[in-house]
């Protein structure tokens, strides 16, 4: 608004006039900045009879709207924990602008499941009073599981874009110990998603903690260069601390390719409120990808693709690759290429299961 410009607003049938006032202040000191000598304020004019309504309801509404606009317009950030061992500065997080294009609209998965997740997220953000009333911290935990390339990272980006949250990506293998983990947590802000990806690969946070043999197997997934001394109880404290010591809304997301290998304590309800399984690309998910990549809702080949997808396991990441149009291709030739890939995958899967069945037979004979 310019100085003395008037803007009219309507609220509950009341008209309010806003005028920007700039008041010059006299000062004996010299300032390089003219704004130091100015006081900016807004003059609101309305009918006397509406005074109570304005002071009690309208101003509250203006502040709330203002906050929401600020959140909508702010640049979101992606934070990662600093990995330099002897970092000179105190900052535990490094940040870059978060500009991932993924949305729930472009996310390929079962429509019903997608709606359920969106509703869960949106209703979480609106339940501040409810959480206060029941005496629980305003938080929600999501466990995303599924094979590589089924969209776990993409879903986190879609969540952040939907809610307008920052993302804190915790690289657990670079966290020295539980104290450092706590420090990271304290330095996260409200309206954020704290992410620990591939939780099964980061630490030995597996189920059946007493069975050494199984633990050995799981350690194969652990990163060999990991120097972390973070323990399972440290991580549990981190999650519970996140809920109890932080003000404001927070979401924590774990992703894993091997949910069965995680310690049940880590993923129990209350810590991870919603378990979301992302799976191989079936026809409904394919239709989303076909719309994203080829801008089509139907095609004569859709029937064949539907059938083949029921018989094969192909990830949305692979389908996305095959749907990227080459300069020499058109939609039909691109879909033909995908059909060929699916047919080959189907044959390979059949040969593999035959081989496995024969191996099983031989094994049983040997046992007899
Ligand atoms: N469900 C999906 N919807 C849309 N695109 C997807 C989906 N799954 C995968 N993709 C595409 O494949 C790429 C890889 O997917 P993404 O990294 O999200 O998978 P992931 O499950 O996190 O894999 P990993 O376990 O290896 O980290 C994405 O950049 C995206 O383009």
TrEMBL record:
<dbReference type="InterPro" id="IPR027417">
    <property type="entry name" value="P-loop_NTPase"/>
</dbReference>
<dbReference type="InterPro" id="IPR003593">
    <property type="entry name" value="AAA+_ATPase"/>
</dbReference>
<dbReference type="GO" id="GO:0006950">
    <property type="term" value="P:response to stress"/>
</dbReference>
<keyword id="KW-0460">Magnesium</keyword>
<dbReference type="InterPro" id="IPR003960">
    <property type="entry name" value="ATPase_AAA_CS"/>
</dbReference>
<keyword id="KW-0547">Nucleotide-binding</keyword>
<feature type="domain" description="AAA+ ATPase">
    <location>
        <begin position="138"/>
        <end position="282"/>
    </location>
</feature>
<comment type="similarity">
    <text>Belongs to the AAA ATPase family. BCS1 subfamily.</text>
</comment>
<dbReference type="InterPro" id="IPR003959">
    <property type="entry name" value="ATPase_AAA_core"/>
</dbReference>
<keyword id="KW-0067">ATP-binding</keyword>
<dbReference type="GO" id="GO:0016887">
    <property type="term" value="F:ATP hydrolysis activity"/>
</dbReference>
<dbReference type="GO" id="GO:0005524">
    <property type="term" value="F:ATP binding"/>
</dbReference>
<dbReference type="InterPro" id="IPR050747">
    <property type="entry name" value="Mitochondrial_chaperone_BCS1"/>
</dbReference>
<dbReference type="InterPro" id="IPR058017">
    <property type="entry name" value="At3g28540-like_C"/>
</dbReference>
<protein>
    <submittedName>
        <fullName>AAA-ATPase</fullName>
    </submittedName>
</protein>
<dbReference type="Pfam" id="PF00004">
    <property type="entry name" value="AAA"/>
</dbReference>
<dbReference type="Pfam" id="PF25568">
    <property type="entry name" value="AAA_lid_At3g28540"/>
</dbReference>
